[in-house]
Structures are given as structure tokens and as C-alpha cells.
Design goal:
The chain has helices spanning about 35-40, 70-85, 105-110, 140-160, 175-180, 195-200, 200-215, 235-245, 260-270, 290-300, 315-320; strands at about 5-10, 10-15, 15-20, 50-55, 90-95, 115, 125, 130, 135-140, 165-170, 220, 250-255, 275-280, 305. The chain is an alpha/beta fold. The strands form four sheets. The chain has an eight-stranded parallel barrel with strand order 3-4-5-10-11-12-13-14, surrounded by four helices. α1 runs parallel beside α2 (about 70-85), α4 runs parallel beside α7 (about 200-215) and α8 packs parallel to α9 (about 260-270). The protein is globular and about 60 Å long.
Length: about 350
């Protein structure tokens, strides 16, 4: 089933493989480069590409060398990337990732903002290396609307840059999940406290993006119960069931396997449109396999996303089709290095 086509909104995908968003930290400042166009174009046989996290505004930048989508220069540079992907027959969504408290003044030039003034129990990436996450500034109630609007503005910029759509990053401890989290969000206004309050920011951000470019061009990524970057969520099944019921009928949800199979199946049953499943869950030692993908398609997923398998295998679809061996990668080449980016060839027969 992985190699069968799928209709995602207005897009006909030639297969059910999704290239998952992965931070590569190779932008020039926060502007995409020619190498980034080559990197994504090499992988255009994927049914859908979702880019690395792209900050929707300046204060949302999580780390150095991560690209943005809030200036005319960035939009023009992304147009080179999307043109290259489309020229190779591909389809590509931009992942809009607001770091929230995962960031640093030395990176963005601003104190990070978050639901509450609570530092993440983790380290963050700066030009000087990894440093303890700083205490963010808590957003005032009116300022929350500014961050919602940033997702809508970035979505419009994405369409102007030639993207087929956008995915809001609601996973892995970034701003949207910080609002969902009982540990990061201790607000007493309408954006905290109850489940209805904690899901409100996610719903409003998705609604704003959908209003800006159309719901068929919008997805959201989620990691239910994921504990990366200091996140704790309470009442996970109820929290995510209520979130999915409150979201508009957008193109898809993209769920990491951070809960057990039974809970994932319940989310599948709750959600009315496309369900993308990433079997790998949070970052671990192993790459997901074709067999895992096929199992989840048989269990009700519509599309399967692969991350690390796409790093060293730009022709992953063909390797799965022909049963060819996969190339592994070294973690120290995942970010910034000149090697381990566009120098992985397709399989040589």
C-alpha cells in the first residue's frame, strides 16, 4: 500500500510516503540556500515533503541556521526551493515552527516568549553551542493574538513562495505544545487551566492559517503525551480527543507514535480527514522500516512519514519499491556540516 496513490485535498500523491520535517540547520542566517533547493529536489519522489521547521516570525526562531518565512528575502529564497521540487515532480508543505520558550536571545535577538515564564528543562542550540534554556517572557493575553496572526501571515507567505500548503508544528515541545502542556502552561486566563483553555491556542492558530490559505492546504503535527524538551501533558487521551474535535476539517493531522497503539487508533477514529503516522515517535536510535509503515496503513493510517531514512536515501521510494538496502547516517552530520546533506546519491545498480 505504501506505493499506491492518495488524494490529499487538491493534491494527488503518487505514493503514501511523506518526508518528515527534520531540522538540518543549513540556512544562511535564516534565509534558504541553493543547497537547500538541491536537498529537497533530490527527495521529490516522496508523495509529500514537509520541510524542516520554519519560524513564522523573528521571535519564533528556535536555533541558529534555521530558516524563516516572514521577510520578502526569505519568501524569494523559498521560491527557488519550491520551484526545484516542483520541477522534479514533487509536492511540498512548509512546516511552521514557533519555538516559544525553545530559543535564546543570542539566536533571535529577542527574549523567547511562551505561555508562562517557565524555562524548559533542557538545553537549546546557539551559535556558541548548547546552553541551558532561558526563562521566557510570558505572553500577555493580547500578545497571544499576535502569535496566532504570525501563523496566518507565514501561511500566506508560504503560498506566495510556491508551497503547496503548510503544517503547523504542534509537537516536540514547541510553542503550540507548550500551550497544550500542563507543565509549561500555568496561565489563569482563557488560554490555560482547563482542557478547553489549553487547546485554544492550537485551534486558533490552525483556524487562522486555514482562513488565510484554505483548510485543504493546512495540516498540524502532534506528539500526544510526548515529553521532549520538558513537556508534561495531563489527561492525554481526553486532551487530544478534545483538540481533534475542536479543529476545523483541515487536510491532515500528522501524529508521532508517542503513545501506545490503542491510543493512536482512537485518534485515527476521531479524526475525519487524512491521518499521517510517524512510526518513529520521538528521536531514538532506530529508523522506521517499510514493514512498520505497511502495518500502520493496514491499521487505518492514510500516509506514513519517514525522517532519518530520508537523510541518506533521497530515492527512498525506489529503494522500498525494489527492496534495496538503505544507507545509514551519522548523527554528527545531521546539522550544519558541509557533508551529509546533498552528497548522498541514489542507488547505483
Amino acid at each position: 500500500m505504501l506505493l499506491t496513490s492518495y488524494q490529499l485535498g487538491n493534491l494527488t500523491l503518487p505514493n503514501r510516503l511523506v518526508m518528515a520535517p527534520m531540522t538540518r540547520a543549513r540556512a544562511a542566517g535564516s534565509t534558504p540556500t541553493a543547497d537547500m533547493a538541491t536537498y529537497y529536489a533530490q527527495r521529490a519522489t516522496a508523495g509529500l515533503i514537509v520541510t524542516e521547521g520554519v519560524h513564522p516570525n523573528a521571535v519564533g526562531q528556535a536555533g541558529p541556521f534555521m530558516p524563516g518565512l516572514h521577510s520578502a528575502e526569505q519568501v524569494a529564497a523559498w521560491r527557488v526551493v519550491t520551484d526545484a521540487v516542483h520541477a522534479n515532480g514533487g509536492r511540498v508543505f512548509a512546516q511552521l515552527m514557533h519555538g516559544g520558550r525553545i530559543g535564546h536571545t543570542d539566536v533571535a535577538g529577542h527574549q523567547p516568549v511562551a505561555p508562562s515564564a517557565i524555562a524548559a528543562d533542557t538545553h537549546v542550540f546557539t551559535a556558541a553551542g548548547m546552553v541551558p534554556a532561558p526563562v521566557p517572557r510570558a505572553l500577555s493575553t493580547p500578545e497571544v493574538a499576535d502569535q496566532v496572526r504570525a501563523f496566518a501571515d507565514a501561511a500566506r507567505n508560504a503560498v506566495e513562495a510556491g508551497f503547496d500548503g503548510v503544517e503547523l508544528h504542534g509537537a516536540n515541545g514547541y510553542l503550540i505544545q507548550q500551550f497544550l502542556s500542563s507543565s509549561a502552561n500555568q496561565r489563569t486566563d482563557g488560554y490555560g487551566g482547563s482542557i478547553a483553555g489549553r487547546i485554544r491556542f492550537a485551534v486558533e492558530a490552525v483556524e487562522a492559517a486555514a482562513d488565510a490559505i484554505g483548510p485543504e492546504r493546512v495540516g498540524i503535527r502532534l506528539s500526544p503525551g510526548g515529553e521532549i524538551q520538558g513537556i508534561v501533558e495531563e489527561n492525554v487521551p481526553t486532551l487530544y480527543r478534545e483538540l481533534l474535535k475542536a479543529l476545523p476539517d483541515i487536510a491532515y493531522i500528522h501524529v508521532l507514535a508517542t503513545v501506545d497503539d490503542e491510543a493512536l487508533m482512537e485518534l485515527r477514529k476521531t479524526w475525519p480527514t487524512a491521518f499521517i503516522l510517524n512510526p518513529g515517535g520521538q528521536i531514538g536510535p532506530d529508523e522506521s522500516t517499510r514493514e512498520e509503515g505497511e502495518r500502520w496503513l493496514a491499521n487505518g493510517a492514510d500516509l506514513i512519514s519517514y525522517g532519518r531514512a530520508y537523510l541518506g536515501n533521497p530515492d527512498l521510494v525506489e529503494r522500498f519499491r525494489l527492496g534495496l538496502p538503505l544507507v545509514g547516517t551519522e548523527r554528527d552530520t545531521w546539522f550544519q556540516t558541509p557533508h551529509g546533506y546533498i552528497d548522498y546519491p541514489s542507488y547505483q545498480h
